[in-house]
Amino acid sequence: MRGSIRSRLGIRALKTVVERKASASNDVKSIQNTGGSTWESVKETIVLCIKVSSFAYCLNTYFASTKMCVGPSMLPTLEESGSLVIEEHISSYYGNFKNGDIVIAKPPYDSQVTVCKRICAMGGEKAACIAQNSSKTEEFVVPDGHVWLEGDNPKNSRDSRSYGPVPLGLLHGKVIFKLWPLKNFGSLPARSASETTGEDASL
Amino acid sequence: MIPKRIRSVLSWAPVFVAVCDFGSIRKVSGYSMQPTLNGDLGNGADFVALEKLSGRFGWRDPERGDVFTLRHPRDPKKIIVKRLIAIQGDIVQGVDSAEAHRIPEGHGWFEGDNLRKSSDSNSFGPVSLGLVEGRVLAIVWPWHRATGLGNEENPAYEDRIIYRCRKNSKASKG
Q1: Average pLDDT of chain B to the nearest whole number
Q2: Family, per the entry (chain A) (predicted)?
Q3: Among A29, A89, A134, B127, which residue's Cβ finds the most Cβ atoms within 10 Å?
């Protein structure tokens, strides 16, 4: 048993040595015919481009990306003219969103756009909301696997109050950092009590 | 130092992941789409080819009869495969209840072909199209079951769709 492992290791070591030698000789060759094999270098460049762009794509899709959030719906927290934020996508795989997080999500009514909203209630929690067109408060329990999204500017936001709870599968990522504008550079503040009531939000 | 072979595999891994985001092959499990998918489950599950670009970029409007994979609305980690029965604007009647559902904007009514063993829109209502992951193009394995999946409209649904907002592009041509 031990012998076989050792011999395997030996074979592997031999292989690596051979490969190294081969690559070294290749290097020598490529140095020798620079200018001659343009096709080889073009091919190498194309392969490198494919690798680099797919690495960037994976980073952008599965790790973190920047996003421009435009619109009045998150007004005290994010600018109306547009804020550049970093969103991370890892929490959408593990589903560790919590109440108060600012998230980027696809709205249920259109799969081609994204919106930036704050989670106001998780599945199983009660969401109390003032309906947009009437003044009476409705209260109900958000179903499992859904979240209740609301903008920080309740007077000017199309959110769960109009389209209902949003399934967790529509959440893209969590906003963790604000890059632009520079005067508000930094991590995002948690929702304050005055904002939740929406009493002193002026338009 | 990392061996060269592992390094080359690692450098190709993002390419593989990116390609899988455009289209991939997946194993179907469960009974809910019998007899279209997994019709011969005793001899092994079906493998299907998926296409994920058109839904993401909106190149092609979903049509009644298409088979999609989608994230379960109540559990985002679970991926289910269902047939789109009605599109936005349609009015559809549930299987068990006489209740008529109007499909909201950007939603669809998804059902399994095997209605008795399927948890679908009849239990969780219309599903947002943002949850759609990919469109099933064909069964690729096992060989004797390999076929393309068009958007066949099952006559069993026809009378349950009370109102059609627009016709399928195929139907309007014919």
Answers
A1: 85
A2: Belongs to the peptidase S26 family. IMP1 subfamily.
A3: B127
pLDDT digits (tens, 9 = 90+) for A14-47: 565 556 555 555 555 555 555 558 999 999 999 9
CA pseudo-torsion sign B10, B14, B15, B16: positive
Domain match, A107 and A36 both: no
Q: Find residue A102's DSSP bridge partners.
A: A118
Minimum Cα–Cα distance from A172: chain B residue: B130
Token look-up 């904002």 returns A195
B141 min Cα distance to partner chain A (Å): 28
Position A175 scores a pLDDT of 92
Distance CA A27, CA A30 (A): 5
Residue B150 reports pLDDT greater than 70: yes
- Domain closes at, from A62, A78, A102: A62
Claim to verify: residue A56 and residue A85 sit in the same structural domain: no
Alpha-carbon gap, residue B103 to B89, rounded angstroms: 5
pLDDT tens by residue, A48-65: 999 999 999 999 999 999
Contacts A169 to B, Cβ<8 Å: 71-73, 76, 130-131
Say what the pLDDT of residue A167 is. 92
Report, in angstroms and rounded to the nearest whole number, the Rg of chain B calculated over CA atoms: 18
Domain boundary among A18, A36, A62: A62
Burial of residue B135 (CB within 10 Å: 0-12, 13-18, 19+) is: buried
Would you call A202 a catalytic residue per the annotation?
no
Domain that holds residue A134: 70-195
**Could you tell me which CATH number the domain at B24-163 has?**
2.10.109.10
| Same domain, yes or no: A8 and A88 | no
CATH at residue A178: 2.10.109.10
CB pair distance less than 8 Å for B71 and A167: yes
Total number of domains constituting chain A: 2
Q: Is residue A200 part of a domain?
A: no
- Helix or strand holding residue B26 (H, E): strand B23-27
